[in-house]
Amino acid sequence: MQIKLTSVFVDDQDKALHFYTDVLGFIKKADVPVGEFKWLTVVSPEGPDDIELLLEPNDNPAAKAYQSALFAQGIPLQTFSVSDIQHEYERLSQRGVTFRMPPTPAGPVTIAMFEDTCGNIIQIMQPT
Question: For the whole model, what pTM was predicted?
Answer without folding.
Answer: 0.94
